[in-house]
Each structure stands twice: as structure tokens, then as C-alpha cells.
Specification:
single chain, 4 helices, elongated, mainly beta, 13% helix, Chitinase A, domain 3, five-stranded antiparallel beta sheet
Length: 282
């Protein structure tokens, strides 16, 4: 009987060690790693954990085609869309990033790298939902390709002073990004500017490249949004004014179709990744 008692006491102690003791207030200690801070965890060395600073080589394939890589030898040996041609480019260096779901990396990439070992090479597929998202037709917008602009504009003298102009006199050139501008006339606080916009002249407003297409009359010119087909631009959203990345999907005689979806939206992403270095906790 006494021997059995000793055995049961030993088993009880083992269970307490394995599953943890209860706290002094009688509540059970939550041992799930998701509910404990990393300071209380014994992280496995040589394995990527959330919050680590990680260095990797990577290659991205879409529909069997190499889309991007930071391994120079793969660029010349395959049909890659990577336009960087120099092996000394900064692109062909290890990719260094924080293994965190903070939006800086696509979530599916981070989730697959977490758990990888140092020097391990892994192939994995990221779904569209965990990659660059599903294609959203609401992100496609059509805008006018041309607009009309008057060669004359009335501004307040105080605005020119606030912009740094001190000597505001008729005929003086005004430093602006929209080509050559002169002060045409002054009437009290009102200053009339004249824009010397000749056909073919180019300029940018809010980062949008534009070109003078033609003169309509002595007071008006027609200006084109000078956006190239299939190129990507950082543009104000025509509906909200917020900056966003848009690709020129189509151009007609009168309009431009802008697509705010990532060009890899709706695509499954096939990665090959090799972990080169792990720094604990970033």
C-alpha cells in the first residue's frame, strides 16, 4: 500500500512538472505560445521566428515563369521579366526583412519563412488571398486623356510672396514646374500670370507627367496626361485624391483606363527561398 502511495505521488509530481503549476489565486497558467510574450519562450536557435530579422535568397515564379529573383545567375539562364542587367546591382543582394505581419511583406511569404532553418531551401506556394490579393474591378477607373487649360491665371500677390517671391513686377518670370510663366499684369493684390505653353512642352503636376498637345486659341491649350501604356505610376486616385499605384491598362483617343490592382493580383506565387542569416528579435 505504501509502495503504491509513493508511485502515485511520483506520477503527480511528473504531471505538475509537465503541465505547469497553478497560480496562487487558483487560476490555471495559460501555456499557449500565442498567449505568452517571447521573453518567456525558449526560442529554438537557427530557426526563423516572428520578429526576427532575416536574410534570404529568393526566386518568384508565376505560371511557371521566373518573375523576380535576387540570384544573378538565374536571370541569364531563364526567361525572366527582371529588367536589371548588372550583377553589381543592389537588387542582386540578399533580401533582408523583418519576419512580421506588418504589411511590409506579403503575409503568405512571411508565414512560410517562419519556421525555416538556417541555410534551408524551401519551395512553397502563396495563394492570391495571402499574396497580392484578389482582382477587384472596383479599382479600375477611366479618366479623360486630355483637358483644357487657360494660358492666363489670376493669383493673389500674397500667395506669391508666401512662395518666396519678393520683387513682383510686370514681365518678371515666375519659377513654377509647369513650364515658363510670366507676370502679365498687376491690379492691386491681383496678379495675372501668363503660361508660355508651346505644343510639345512637357511638365509634371503632383507627379503626373503631362504634355502640351495643341493650342486651341490664343487663350487655351489642350494638355494630355502623358502616361505610357502598361507602365505603372504613383498617381492621385481620381475618385479620392489619395496617392496610389496605378497601371495604365488601356488608352483610347479620348480616355485612359487606370488599374489600381497589383499586376500579380489573382495569381498564385511559387517561391524558392534560402535562409542565409537570422538575427533574433530583429
Amino acid at each position: 500500500m505504501q509502495k503504491n502511495t509513493v508511485v502515485w505521488i511520483g506520477l503527480l509530481i511528473g504531471i505538475l512538472i509537465l503541465f505547469g503549476c497553478t497560480s496562487g489565486d487558483g487560476n490555471s497558467q495559460n501555456l499557449s505560445p500565442l498567449n505568452r510574450s517571447t521573453s518567456n519562450l525558449s526560442l529554438s536557435p537557427g530557426i526563423v521566428h516572428l520578429g526576427d530579422r532575416v536574410s534570404v535568397y529568393y526566386s518568384l515564379f508565376v505560371d511557371g515563369r521566373l518573375i523576380d529573383t535576387n540570384i544573378w545567375s538565374l536571370v541569364n539562364s531563364s526567361n525572366s521579366t527582371n529588367s536589371t542587367s548588372s550583377p553589381n546591382s543592389s537588387h542582386f543582394r540578399p533580401l533582408v526583412f523583418n519576419a512580421a505581419l506588418d504589411g511590409s511583406m506579403i503575409p503568405g511569404f512571411v508565414q512560410n519563412v517562419v519556421g525555416m532553418k538556417l541555410n534551408e531551401t524551401k519551395n512553397f506556394t502563396v495563394s492570391p488571398a495571402q499574396g497580392y490579393g484578389l482582382y477587384d474591378p472596383n479599382k479600375v477607373v477611366r479618366v479623360d486623356r486630355y483637358y483644357e487649360k487657360s494660358l492666363y491665371e489670376t493669383v493673389n500677390r500674397s500667395d506669391l510672396i508666401a512662395a518666396g517671391m519678393k520683387n513682383i513686377t510686370k514681365g518678371r518670370q515666375v519659377p513654377v514646374k509647369q513650364g515658363t510663366v510670366f507676370i502679365s499684369s498687376i491690379n492691386g493684390d491681383e496678379v495675372v500670370l501668363y503660361y508660355l505653353l508651346l505644343p510639345g512642352a512637357t511638365f509634371e503636376i503632383n507627379g503626373v507627367p503631362q504634355r502640351v498637345d495643341s493650342a486651341i486659341d490664343d487663350n487655351l491649350v489642350r494638355i494630355e496626361y502623358d502616361l505610357a501604356l502598361n507602365q505603372t505610376y504613383n498617381l492621385p486616385d481620381p475618385r479620392t485624391g489619395k496617392l496610389g499605384i496605378f497601371r495604365v491598362q488601356d488608352k483610347t483617343n479620348d480616355s485612359i483606363v487606370l488599374d489600381g490592382n497589383h499586376f500579380l493580383a489573382n495569381k498564385s506565387l511559387d517561391f524558392q527561398v534560402t535562409v542565409l542569416n537570422i538575427t533574433r528579435g530583429g
